[in-house]
Specification:
Layout: E1 18-23, E2 29-34, E3 41-46, E4 52-54, E5 60-67, E6 73-80, E7 86-92, E8 98-104, E9 106-112, E10 118-128, E11 131-141, E12 147-153
Antiparallel strand pairs: 1-2, 2-3, 3-4, 5-6, 6-7, 7-8, 9-10, 10-11, 11-12
Length: about 150
């Protein structure tokens, strides 16, 4: 939507849900979740050309995409079909390579540090019949995968 004149441009046109859109830091691309492929995929669209790139291959589905501050990396959560385990992925947009980090029962929303060196996220642990017993706020150093807990609540 153009904020000055209020005009709206439809970016996708299909019979399935496209959701969770996030602008790239430079405003040239949008990352979003789409169900048009097998499972829920993470897609990147060039705003000018509307060219789409599917960034996540089956059998995983992806959700909660987040750009690094410099726009080079995408962090997202993946989950294999039928599994309750979720995995944090970081995709290098320039090279197309992806790194995966340990699987957990639940990982919630994550944010990049302003310099793009760290991700902070919430990890729910110690599942029992009443739900999650413990919530941990974790920091991940993107360069080498080192992570640590900064809080713990039971």
């Amino acid at each position: 939507m153009d904020v000055e004149d209020g005009s709206i441009v439809q970016m996708t046109d299909n019979q399935v849900a496209d959701s969770e859109p996030v602008w790239s830091p430079d405003g040239r691309r949008i990352v979003f979740r789409s169900q048009r492929y097998d499972g829920c995929q993470i897609c990147v669209m060039d705003v000018q050309t509307r060219e789409e790139i599917k960034t996540l291959e089956d059998p995983e589905s992806g959700f909660w995409p987040s750009w690094s501050p410099d726009g080079r990396f995408l962090a997202y959560i993946g989950r294999e079909a039928g599994s309750i385990e979720q995995t944090l992925h970081i995709l290098d947009i320039e090279t197309g390579t992806s790194r995966s980090f340990a699987a957990f029962r639940a990982v919630n929303g994550f944010l990049w540090s302003p310099d793009g060196r760290y991700l902070i996220y919430e990890r729910l642990e110690d599942w029992n019949e009443d739900g999650f017993k413990e919530v941990k706020l974790r920091v991940l150093q993107v360069s080498d995968g080192t992570e640590w807990s900064v809080s713990s609540m039971e």
